[in-house]
Amino acid sequence: MEKNRQSAIEYLRNNREDLIERLGEFIRIPSISTEPEHREDVGRAAEWLARQLRSLDLQEVEIFPTAGAPVVYGSTRSEDPKAPTLLVYGHYDVQPVDPLDEWKGDPFEPRRQGDNLYARGVSDMKGQIMAALNALQAVRQAGDLPIRFKFLFEGEEEVGSPNLYAFINSHREILACDLCLNPDTGMLGPELPTITYALRGLAYFDLCLRGPSQDLHSGSFGGVIHNPAQVLCELIADLHDENGRVTIPGFYDPVRKLEAEEREDLNRLPVDEDFYRKTAGVENLWGEREFSVSERVGARPTLEVNGLLSGFTGEGSKTVLPAVAKAKLSCRLVADQKPAEVAEQLERFLQDRLPDTVTWELKQLAAAPPVLSPRDSKGITALSDAFEAVWGKRPLFRREGGTVPVGAYLQELLGVDSVQTGFALPDDNAHSPNEKLDLATWFRGMEGLTHFYYNLGDHGSDSGKDSGR
Ligand SMILES: [Zn+2]
């Protein structure tokens, strides 16, 4: 395999202009998922991608319609029945381009300047999809495939993947795999290859407190009627203690402890308190003091008040005692918390705390479990070794504070871990005017994925997952 590996890497080095050209073709299709007038373009991007998969001589390639944008699926033959199956996830839709006048050129006509390629979607994430496909092409022309590949490309990520869960759920058999690669999380700098091994989950709630049957005159009723806005504020004040910890009983019980080695790695990340102060425009930070900022954002759960509504909020004054007080509350969750369990804990907390002077209703609006891939899983080891081969150093290991639903869906529905990475840089202007891709980093990334594919083959058939398929 060693000879094949070299020949695959050489192939990538010898065909750079062609690979940029092909990415350009993909870029020219304005597949903006949120704009109905681009519906056809979204479909065209799916077809273009399916053609790419066919040209890679995949065994099966299919475009599946969904209630929204189609899903493009493909799988390679299994040349070695013991080889692991890697599912590559991606999204071929892009963000809108406005404000258009801030772009230095047509957003859908790739423009090269130095080592950068400018266009909408070039970084997020058409370039990332092509990096994965180009690496496969390089491996394919070098000889037998070291692993089996499957591809799952959706066209609705930028609008929240409304049909992805149902799709994965109803196609579990064809999607069965040993691990998933999601190259949509990027890296922290051109010299800082990054593996994101955990994502926080989310539990989102709408809380409504009702007091009197209508808004009342505070002169006639103040002192007799319990004001729901006051009840809500007292409740919210009770949700954290003076050390910034959430006070809901049991909230932290399932939270997985950080090992010393993991803490060390998290604290190697090039984000410090200053970064948060500057980016947020505040003088002082807040939160659990015994954890660093990287740990607090990646490895600790939170509870936030996302919105508050009650009483009179217009200009001037109105002496009203409001009938209703509402709050939007949400928790970012970490392994091994479960959104349903958190909902129960919050419900119990409300039962215990809220006085009988108000009635209340709690609705859960969203739930996504956290995901965490063991850092010593074979998939992550294979990727880490691959990046080390290209960059000459161990990658950064990051826990991401946000929520990427696909990772949770794959874990829940297929029982597989995801390895999150990618070659987008923090200054790529994703979602903004003049989005760009650093081509030098892109090519290094492609070589990294090539090594990754071979490493997975070398590491045997149980990569990333304890049990068989
Ligand atoms: Zn993306």
Write a short abstract of this structure:
The chain is 36% helix and 20% strand. By secondary structure, it is α+β, with helices and mostly antiparallel strands.
What is the spatial order of strands in the main beta sheet? 1-2-6-3-7-17
Task: Tell me the number of helical segments per DSSP (H or I, 4 or more residues long).
Answer: 15
Structural class call reads: alpha+beta
Distance between the termini: 25 Å
Shape: elongated
How many individual β-strands?
18
% residues in beta strands: 15-25%
Cofactors, ions and other ligands in the entry: zinc ion
Mean of residue pLDDT? Answer: 95
- List low-pLDDT spans: 460-469
Query: How would you sum up the major sheet?
Result: 6 strands, mixed
Estimate the helix proportion, in percent. Answer: 25-40%
- As a whole number of angstroms, the C-alpha radius of gyration is 25 Å
